[in-house]
Design brief:
heterodimer, A: about 170 residues, alpha+beta, 5-stranded mixed beta sheet, 11 strands, about 20% helix, B: about 160 residues, alpha/beta, 3-stranded parallel beta sheet, 5 helices, about 35% helix, about 10% strand, globular
């Protein structure tokens, strides 16, 4: 069993170039790190004997909506700048410990390295995060929409998402 | 209706209007496209099962739209699914009937405001004969909907399709 503080220390030793920040003021402790190194970090977390995180319980996207909010031409609010985040909930079935990782990427071009090569189950999770938020998972084998139709425009769970008037000739609003 | 009350007492001849005979045949064997969408489909399956027994009205699920007379839209219709439903409907041979089951298929239901992916009523895509309200409707309500549809078919004419 390792607690998040110990895990951060191990990670800092293994990846001296990368920033690790322990977010302490939430219900659970979250390790904030770098989106373009996340695949290496995850691979280390999975293969290291002391950590052995063999299960990715969940991978989810979050729109932080921390950019500047401006009014569009038609009066609706859009968000410029700021970040969007991906959260990874890991669990070790052998050592029975858990950890949460977070990476933040710029909203305009949210590029995150794919962890599909580390845990196969990340494949569809990342496709869903791409579908709903527009994260670009680099080196993902098949990054296409999973829930919405392939020709859908926009990312529905972004805070400034606007419903389309029509889709394929069908009226969308009530 | 009333095929048997026009029967001659001493022979095997039954006299009826062609309309009546056709309508009676149609409404007594409404083969249903085996097709479910959401929680309403659970109620629809319960209606088909032994306790409520859809089969006593001649409703038998068919696996192909080419063999079906009726399609029950049982659940939330997403925009992605709406295109598929339209195609299934177009593949069914005439005469064909539609029962819209539950609030989602009627008008979008709980997704009417924030459901960016939900079609707000299946009647925006295909013509509906009977709407069954409820969320989800009980099997009794679906049976009532089917009886309403049978009533509608009973009054059809070969010259003019009304249902």
């Amino acid at each position: 069993m390792k607690n998040p503080e110990e895990i951060v220390e191990i990670l800092k030793k293994e990846f001296p170039e990368t920033k690790f920040e322990l977010i302490n003021d939430l219900l659970e402790k979250i390790i904030d790190t770098d989106p373009l190194t996340i695949h290496k970090i995850c691979n280390f977390l999975r293969t290291n004997e002391e950590l052995h995180f063999d299960s990715l319980m969940n991978l989810s996207g979050v729109d932080d909506a921390n950019g500047t909010k401006v009014k569009d031409a038609d009066g609706t609010e859009i968000i410029n700048g700021g970040t969007m985040s991906v959260y990874y909930h890991l669990h070790s079935t052998k050592l029975k410990h858990k950890v949460t990782l977070k990476v933040s990427a710029p909203r305009e071009n949210p590029e995150v390295e794919s962890v599909e090569s580390v845990w196969k189950c990340a494949d569809w999770h990342e496709r869903e995060a791409y579908d709903m938020y527009g994260f670009k998972f680099l080196n993902h084998p098949d990054l296409i929409r999973i829930l919405m139709p392939y020709d859908w425009e926009g990312y529905p769970l972004r805070k400034d998402y606007k419903n389309p008037e029509f889709y394929q000739g069908m009226k969308v609003p009530y | 209706m009333g095929l048997l009350d026009k029967e001659f007492s001493d022979s095997n001849i039954v006299i009826a209007k062609a309309d009546d005979l056709l309508n009676w045949a149609r409404l007594s064997s409404l083969w249903q496209l085996g097709f479910g969408l959401a929680c309403c489909a659970i109620e629809m399956m319960a209606t088909s099962a032994s306790h409520y027994d859809f089969d006593r009205f001649g409703v038998i699920p068919r696996p192909s739209p080419r063999q079906a007379d009726i399609i029950i839209i049982s659940g939330t219709v997403t925009l992605k699914m709406a295109l598929r439903i339209k195609r299934l409907y177009e593949q069914m041979p005439d005469p064909k009937y539609i029962i819209s089951m539950g609030s989602c298929a009627n008008c979008g239901g709980p997704y009417w405001e924030h459901g960016y992916h939900v079609l707000k009523g299946i009647d925006r895509v295909i013509p509906v004969d009977v709407y069954v309200p409820g969320c989800p409707p009980r099997p009794e309500a679906l049976l009532e909907g089917l009886l309403k549809l049978q009533e509608k078919i009973r009054n059809e004419s070969m010259r003019k399709k009304t249902a």
